[in-house]
Design brief:
The protein is mainly alpha-helical and 282 residues long. About 5% of the residues have low confidence.
């Protein structure tokens, strides 16, 4: 019998629609959001809908409460979604593949991989420039002339200026061999202790907001609540589960797609280096 984690992954994997950028939409969660919106609209049709007069002293506390709760719920469930995504088959497969490739590298390989990476990034930049030039029916010679200072047509020069400003991807050797996915361009010689405090402080922001809110807030029970007051309160709270669902789906999709692809790219770089090394020794 499947455990709860496996059931969650199965449900999240049920979406069939794809975003234009290739990320998988979570169909089941999208339907849930749609149902919640439909329920809110249905409730609102049985009431007289109007906008209340904006009074900062009356509206600001409720607004701050809802905003703070929304941020805490979103980031908490986004983190929970990431942990769920780490159990996906593709992510685990690419992570295992990356670990095995890194374990096969020696100290000498690591130094040589750094040199290979520099050439790899230069070739990747040249390929991107050639594709951009071809898309606008331009040649490398025209780009070279533009870089040398030759100017001609304004529209053509604008395109060449954009292409000339292309830079190598920001991937360091540390990024390639790091076991995680959040290296952030650091050098492998950097002491991780230096960034530890800042990272911990960022993680404490949601908890800090929650603490400040709970300490400063004063609650007074509403007297003589009518049906319209209850419906209005329910309508305000309906945004929270929608935000939570979106955060959970975003965290899951981030790990299942972006992180898995990032592992695959780094594995391809290492494998290309090892293949070139084998050809040289053959």
């Amino acid at each position: 019998m499947k455990n709860l984690r496996e059931i969650e992954i199965s449900l999240l994997d049920g979406g069939q629609a794809l975003k234009k950028n290739g990320l998988e939409l979570v169909g089941g969660l999208g339907k849930l959001v749609a149902l919640l919106c439909a329920a809110v609209t249905a409730i609102a049709t049985f009431t007289d809908v109007s906008f209340a007069e904006f009074a900062l002293s009356d509206t600001l506390p409720s607004l701050l409460l809802l905003l703070t709760s929304s941020y805490i719920i979103y980031f908490s469930l986004e983190d929970a979604g990431e942990h769920l995504g780490e159990g996906c088959e593709d992510y685990l497969l690419q992570k295992k593949r990356h670990t095995e490739l890194c374990d096969s590298l020696t100290g000498e390989d690591t130094r040589a991989l750094g040199v290979f990476l520099e050439e790899y990034l230069k070739d990747e930049l040249a390929t991107r420039r050639r594709r951009a030039l071809a898309a606008h029916s331009l040649t490398e010679q025209e780009l070279e002339k533009y870089i040398a200072g030759e100017r001609c047509d304004r529209g053509r020069d604008r395109i060449l200026r954009r292409i000339s400003r292309m830079r190598c991807a920001k991937i360091t050797l540390y990024d390639v061999i790091s076991s995680g996915v959040k290296a952030g361009g650091r050098s492998r010689l950097d002491n991780p202790e230096r960034g530890k405090l800042g990272s911990l402080l960022l993680k404490l922001i949601p908890s800090t907001l929650c603490t400040v809110l709970t300490v400063s807030i004063m609650l007074t029970a509403k007297s003589d609540m009518s049906a319209s007051d209850i419906i209005g309160s329910v309508l305000k709270l309906t945004a929270l589960p929608v935000i939570g669902v979106r955060g959970y789906a975003a965290g899951y999709s981030y790990v299942k797609n972006d992180c898995a692809v990032w592992y695959r790219i780094r594995c391809d770089i290492i494998e290309e280096y090892l293949a070139g090394k084998s050809n040289k020794s053959a």
